[in-house]
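Notes from the 1:1 (GR / supervisor)

We went over the backlog. Supervisor wanted to see one worked example end to end before approving the batch request, so GR pasted a single chain during the call. The sequence is below; no edits were made to it. Supervisor asked that the structure be written out right there so they could see what the output format looks like.
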Amino acid sequence: MAATQKLACFRLPPLPTIKEIIKLYNLRAEKQLSQNFLLDMRLTDKIVRQAGNLKDAHVCEVGPGPGGLTRSILKAGAANLLVVEKDTRFIPGLQLLSEAAPGRMRIAHGDILTYRLERGFPAHIAKTWEDVPPNLHIIGNLPFSVSTPLIIKWLEQMSNRTGCFMFGRTRLTLTFQKEVAERLTASTGSRQRSRLSVMAQYLCTVKNCFTIPGCAFVPKPNVDVGVVHFTPLAQPQIQQPFKLVERIVKNAFQFRRKHCRRGLEMLFPESQRRELTEELLRGADVDPTLRPTEISISEFRALADAYSKLCEENQGLIDYDFREELKLKHQAKRQLGSNHKGLKLHTTMEENVNDNH
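Structure output shown during the call:
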């Protein structure tokens, strides 16, 4: 009997279906915002199950839209749900849902890329980083256009223990295009291995939970969708600042089909490029003929440590950008060409004057 009552308290009162909400408020998915609605409650329930036990949990849902995933989160027993929605068209439908779950759901109108999530939850739920994760979850069916910049932002906050990671090792359950989901979880040596794989896996345990076929969404996207779960590691696999690690990884993957030496040498000014690249690879004990996809996390750790040492020994190296050097080189070349043309024109005019005389 007690168990039945427990389940009953998670049940929402009768509400219009998501299809009816869409019709009632004349909602249409905006292509420019890459919106796709998930109407099948069995699938939204399945996404929520990947987050773990949500009974009495604090949850932030990103981009709830018409509220399908929101209902599943409330049904799972979340005690404090904050939904962050950028599109004002969805607010009335979400308010209807909030009224059906009094005291359990708050609506914030804002852009998740700039929204200060740490202000949305009480300080007492925080855990130390080495402790078990806090009873706080971020869940979202992300628009494709923001999914990659958003996870990069959250990974940086995770590294710095800022934002929602001020509360400890906050877990994330998010949707991505299937291809991005595969990149996030790709192992060393696999075809899908990318910058995103390394940046996510050095900071988290990343699990590709399941794939949702595109036909389950309205409107149907041209791709399938992967559900990915992230649990931050108590000890990141690379103990260097996020921006330094990102610089190493980004440069390594710049020429993904070439040997890693080709991308890593762009970390250094042209005048010292050969010498410092050799020093970096020797210090890290990394084979210069490896492809970027073949470099393991431990090898990236060695590269980051060796690069950090070189930056300490070479003033200004950390701020070097090869694109800036290339730009200045092109400008100087154009200026030289312009001066040469001017000189040629001046000489021709002098010759013409002399001929007339």
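Supervisor's comment: The CA atoms of residues 71 and 357 lie 93 Å apart.
Batch request approved.
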